[in-house]
Amino acid sequence: MPARVHAFLYVRADDRPDAHLARTLAALTAQSRPVDALTIVIAGHAQPATMALVEASGAEGVVVASRTTRFAQAMGLAARRVGDADALWLLGQDTAPEPDALRRLVGALDVQPSVAVFAPKLIRWDEPSRIVSLGVSMTAYGRAVGLADGEFDQGQHDGDDDVLGADVRGMLVRHDAWRALGGIDPALFGADDGLDLSVRARLAGHRVAVVPRARLAVAGDGAIGPTAPLGARGRRRALFETRIGQRHRRLVYAPAALLPLHWLSYPPLVVFAAILALVRKAPRSIAPDAAATLTAWIRLRDVARARRRIAAGGARVPWSRLDALRVDRRQLRDRLALDGIAPEPDHRGELRFFSGGGAWVVLGAALVSIVAFFSLLAWPALGGGALLPMRTTVAGLWADAAYGQRALGWDLVGPADPFAAVVAVIGSLTAWAPAQGLLALWLLALPLAALAGWMGATRLTARAWLRAAGAAGWALAPPFVSALVDGRPGAVIAHLLLPWLLICLAASRRSLAAASGAGLLAGALLAAAPSLAVPALVLWLGALVTAGRGAGRTAWALAPPLALAAPLVWERAIVQGDPLSLLADPGAPPVAPGAPPAWALLGGWGRIPLGWDEAVHLVPVLLLVPFALLALLSPLTSRWRAGGALLAIALLGTAVAFAAPRIAVTVTAAGPIGLDPGPAASLAWLGVLGAAVAALDAGGLRRPVLRGLAGTVAIAAVAVAVAPALALPTRGGGAIQNGPVSTLPAYVAAVGDGARSGTLVIDARADGYGARIVWGGSETLGGQTTLLSAPGLGDGGTDAARASDDTVAAVVADLVTGADSAGTASLADQGIAFVLVDATPESAGEDAAARRAQAIAALDARGSLVSVGEETGRGALWRVGASEPEAAGIERAEPPASVALTGRLVALAQIAVMIIAVLLAVPTLASRRAARRHPRLLGLPRTARDEGSSGELDPLAEPLPEDDETEEAGV
Amino acid sequence: MSMLRAWRTAGVGARYVAAAAASVAAVALAATLAFAPPAPRVAAAAPAVEVLPAATPTVLVCPGDLLIGGRTAGDAGALAAAAPARVESAGTPEPDESPIEPATDASGPGTLALRAVGGDRPAEVAAASSSRAAADDIAGLAAASCAPPRFESWLAGGTTVPGATTLVTLANPGEVAASVELTVYGAAGAVQAPGGTDLVVGPGERLVVPVAGIAPDEAAPVVQVRATRAPVTAFLQYSEVQTLQPVGADVIAPSAASAPRQSIAGVRVPASEGIEPLTVRLLSADDDATAVVSVTAEGEAAPSETVEVDLAAGVPVDVAVPGLDEGAYGVRVEASAPVVAAARTTTTADAAWSPAAEALEAPALFAVPDGGDAELGIAAGDEAATVTVTDASGDEPQSIELAAGSYAALALEPGTWRLSSTTAVTAAVAIAEGNGAAVVAVLPAAADTAPVRVYP
């Protein structure tokens, strides 16, 4: 008796399945061996057109179910209609069998009695030569692996027979086995329906076979079987289905003893999978992955039901018998390797850092650095200029970087400057002695700048000598050398980061890793030099506008700087309504107050050239003219795109450098002072240097010898211009000095280090007294806060700030006049254990000296203060509290719980964003491979880019003929 | 093809034009920026808070009982009270009295400090004390106004010749110990001796140091008291015995700070029986100087007597002013260098020291102690003045018109009085009781609290 086949066709009405359904029904009608019965299950409310198709199909029955009924449940409903059929054929709206398909399947059914499940070869709906699925296996850990998915069908699998499992679409299942197995597990979402059914059949002692010659075209609607990963939604859906199948099956297949362990592992698995997704630069897979895992995690009843189903199926075969059919590690690797086997175009060539002379330039810069900053090698800490001591512990460094009580001020609670986080990172690199981090930064600054300059130059030229020239030009940049000698950490850090930021920003549209790297770099850059906020925003917008489809990636670059600065932006712009003060330079007050003259700014110096006599003040500017001329050549060359963009950057930088000193938001004892134009001058220098390199690379001068000469002259002129500044430290000039370990007297540093007590520092001025409160053993670089140094353009900030200003003023006035008041009592209550009257510089004048003497006399006469040191070199010091124990009990009050909570939440959010950014920025093999698909050079003409993408090596990356050797000798 | 080339050429040409234009624009912009006037600045203001600090407490320390040594058998250095002090005090608010304890066993009895804390303005306190001794070893009327503590005091008066006792009393009414250094200027110039340096006066304590221990046998000493860490109130207590006959005792308050011009009021020359009824002690501490001492009688504008004297640096000189009739006189000293001055009038049985007084620019409260007939002497400055004296509550006003440089006297009852003047004057109260005489200076009121500017 021929076997009776009952076909079930599942239609999801929501899909508007008419086109697919029509082809499927037509294919069913065209079968050389027709089905004996057809039942159509419609989930949801079908359109009339669909109903018409269904009615014309000759189905023996039509089951209409609710729209939430998935295939598994639908089969549960419809299987009652099977009657005396021998086999069930599982079809969907988008499964069109070839005419012979059923004949071949039934043929196999007839001759292979031990096989309960037969699976056809699934091919693409519109591309019959591509296999969608032919047998599915799984790894030892239960991950489903398609055996031939995506391969071109060349008959290579047509001999296959025995498989562990198969895709559910088009599956022919013996009716008795179906009944015994209990049908499809409704807890699965399509992807692993067939695999799970097959595994259960195997466990029940049946076999599962593929019938490769029976072919079925599938569209991947997802009504039955897995959704095809097409489009963003399809990919998300497919991933969700795959993942929930995997997670559910793991719980179902696991030995009972291990079940709790598996179940407990799911929440951490979510986090782990998220981290992995970030490293793989696939952040979009996080949500479906987590949703799938958590769904599987909470559906314990479904797990129990599925485990019972396996048991009920009669587990006659031990799991170990299935092992032979699983894919092992080697097969899996081969399978994965197939994906990446396609030859990747490589447009990059070798970087040639060592062979191209980059290493030599960096080494040379290191030598110059050691000679110029020789004394730094012996210093325990760096000071002078805008530098201050570092905290002595890593915990202290990071506490300074967190929201909460600030290290300065009477009762200041608020966000930290983002710069504190940068300082904390630098200090943490030398965790054993954070002060050495700053020293190391200074000693390594020149070689690091050379490296950054060299890397930047690789984006503009492939010529070794030009790259070297770019490196030298960046390391010897006047604003950079000034910042080093002046001791302005923000400008130094900004200069070191700028080339990397631009490299990453330029690549951000095509690489999430680069975008994330650009974000991190921008965060650090803007923390160190907030005055660059406007040009950075302009550059980012430029990158965004030109990013095209990669705009999403480029947009992400904004997230890390926003996250870093958000608390301060909130406080400044929203709470205080004073966004301009956000531009205030962080750290100690800048060294050179007042706006530098225009000629110095135009000359790219950012300030009056160091080490030059005033009499020759135009010479150091004129020395930079060769560079400017070369830069102006660049728009005339074939590299006019890059040259023009770089000149625009130079213009932007110069404009900001001019504007910066006119914005005086920082207030010092000497009055308000303008922003440091140094970082903007660095940006301008980057534009000029880059444009000059681009001009020389593109042959802005026709004759190679002339080009070499021009480059040499330009670099030599810059070297001459900065040489006097570089020589300053060795001649005992310059602002940097063997830094103090603490800005307070040693007694306070010893007692107050790590303690939570504060010091009231009073400095006598000609017309009054300055007062500030320092918490801990010293003022620190990270502890500085622009909330204090830039009190705001309005009427002095918030009410709270004014109130504490008034309190401080009242206390100080009482202290210095010897008034009878509760002054010292409020000091102790506040946690201030010391009062220091600063040593007044002679330049402050006689009035200040008289005020100081009066203050000292008044403080001396107070019984509640005990003089600790008359003149400690840093001033006269008193301890609050008549006795030692009384003094020891003076501590700063813990912040209120709400502040601590806010601090924790802010830190959590910031750390989360930073971790995500770092994970995304970590380069992987795949991301590096992807990068190699694009030429290293930026701003190439479109034709060159097109040629480059044809698979050839970038012609410009090749060693260039004729001029390479002669010109290398010239630099 | 040629079309393409044409396009390309045109493109290159356009680029050149654009680049040239950009270069020109850049140079023009550069030139403009270089020579443009500086743009307006956006500048934050340094937050400054102007604070009126709470008033400094007004503290006065009284000289205390008249001291005499040598009364305790077996301990010649021990001091004892020869005559109790009667203190007349008043103030708004009412001052608190706190005792000043003797710092050492040899410091004799203690004294008292008066302390009052004002509101917006410093408290106004005036106090003076007087003692009348009449014993075999000490006799005379001693009086002085209670004085605020200072970091530097000049004490001109007394003598350490045999038979005379001059003691420096150093009282510290403050909260922390003061360390005090005494310099005695004598015939040999400035003398510092171990007994007069590194003296520590604890808070609320009084130390008594005999001047003879530092500079013995000095006819005309001037003592400079310098305190650090806390100010002290210093007085001299002087008593003298000549051939078993006590010839005088007095408490000498600090003179006005060293200055080229000094004015001494409250000089009352007795009927001239002995010799040198009036001597003026002068010291130019640092420089050689020439000083002119002019003495103006009550009611006169022109000096009745003028003496010119050369002063060697660091050597005090007693200048006798001869030929004066009985009466009240004002003494003015004008010198070519800063000097310290005090005047002494001598009766047959007592001596009265009148230190150079500080100018009174604001209304001053002063106390006239009980003990004899009191007469307020007022010396005008370089300008004419109208002086009004009222009692403490402002009643019973008495006005006196003074011509520039003139001197006036006004009899007063014991009690507290207020003196206000249109221009700066100096004033002191001379007290006479039988043959005893003493002078109580009128001290200026504590300066008003000045606002303090703080940059927080």
Structural shape of chain B: elongated
Mean pLDDT of chain B: 85
Count of discrete alpha- or pi-helical segments spanning 4 or more residues of chain B: 1
The percentage helix of chain B is: under 10%
Strand % of chain A is 5-15%
Low-confidence stretches of chain A: 943-971
What are the salient characteristics of this protein?
heterodimer, A: about 950 residues, alpha+beta, 23 strands, B: about 450 residues, mainly beta, seven-stranded mixed beta sheet, 1 helix, elongated
Explain this structure to me?
The complex is a heterodimer of chains A (971) and B (456). With 971 residues, chain A is of the alpha+beta class. Chain A contains 38 helices and 23 strands. In chain A, helix 19 packs parallel to helix 22, helix 25 (625-633) crosses helix 27 (678-697) and helix 25 runs antiparallel to helix 28. Chain A starts with a strand and ends with a helix. Chain B is built from one helix and 35 strands. At the A-B interface, helix 23, helix 26, strand 15, strand 20 and helix 31 of A face helix 1, strand 1 and strand 35 of B.
Topology, please?
The complex is a heterodimer of chains A (971) and B (456).
Chain A: E1 5-12, H1 18-29, E2 37-43, H2 48-55, E3 61-65, H3 71-78, E4 87-92, E5 95-97, H4 101-111, E6 115-124, E7 131-133, E8 136-138, E9 144-146, E10 172-174, H5 175-181, H6 193-203, E11 207-218, H7 231-253, H8 259-279, H9 286-298, H10 300-312, H11 329-339, H12 358-372, E12 382-383, H13 394-400, E13 404-405, E14 413-414, H14 418-429, H15 434-458, H16 464-475, H17 478-486, H18 489-507, H19 512-528, H20 533-545, H21 551-556, H22 559-575, H23 598-602, H24 619-622, H25 625-633, H26 640-659, E15 663-664, E16 666-668, E17 671-673, H27 678-697, H28 704-727, E18 737-738, H29 746-752, E19 758-765, E20 768-775, H30 786-789, H31 799-817, H32 823-830, E21 832-838, H33 846-860, E22 865-869, E23 875-880, H34 884-888, H35 897-921, H36 925-931, H37 942-948, H38 964-970
Parallel strand pairs in A: 1-2, 1-4, 2-3, 6-11, 19-21
Antiparallel strand pairs in A: 4-10, 5-11, 6-7, 6-10, 8-9, 12-18, 13-14, 16-17, 19-20, 21-23, 22-23
Helix pairs in contact in A: 1-2, 7-9, 7-10, 8-9, 8-35, 12-15, 12-16, 13-14, 14-15, 14-19, 15-16, 15-18, 16-27, 16-28, 17-18, 17-27, 17-28, 18-19, 18-27, 19-22, 19-35, 22-35, 25-27, 25-28, 26-27, 28-38, 31-32
Chain B: H1 2-35, E1 42-43, E2 49-51, E3 58-61, E4 66-69, E5 79-83, E6 86-92, E7 96-102, E8 111-116, E9 124-134, E10 139-145, E11 152-156, E12 164-172, E13 178-186, E14 189-191, E15 199-201, E16 205-210, E17 222-228, E18 233-242, E19 245-252, E20 259-269, E21 278-283, E22 289-297, E23 305-311, E24 317-320, E25 327-346, E26 351-355, E27 364-368, E28 373-380, E29 385-391, E30 398-402, E31 407-412, E32 415-421, E33 425-433, E34 436-441, E35 452-455
Parallel strand pairs in B: 7-16
Antiparallel strand pairs in B: 2-35, 3-8, 4-5, 6-9, 7-8, 9-10, 11-17, 12-16, 12-18, 13-14, 13-15, 13-17, 18-19, 20-25, 21-24, 21-25, 22-23, 22-25, 25-26, 27-32, 28-31, 28-33, 29-30, 29-32, 33-34
